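Many introductory courses stop at the sequence. We go one step further.
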Amino acid sequence: MLNDYLPVFFQILVVAGFAAMVLILSVIFGRAAKRNATKDTPYECGMLPIGEGAPRFSVKFYLVAMLFVIFDIEVVFMYPWALQFRELVAKSPAALASMAGFAGILAVAYVYALKKGALNWKN
């Protein structure tokens, strides 16, 4: 049984040896960095870094983005069902009832999002 794991142990040994060798060679042949204030500042495409790094976005942006992703994924679930609609309903009408329930839950979620004002950008 140990013979089955011998290639795995050999690969782990080779990887660990390579990583150690690369680190040791970088210390031996690498230049010692001379640090100063200019080199330690972040590079911003030639511009001096003044102000905050990124603008702040409204929570509404993230809320609408999450709602879009959720409803988009639900449409992805509906598409294969729609392609096989005739075959599914011919086999069992329960397929239609299950998708009607699924669409009903989506409708309730959409109405809830509207009532909460999640899609209203004016507030």
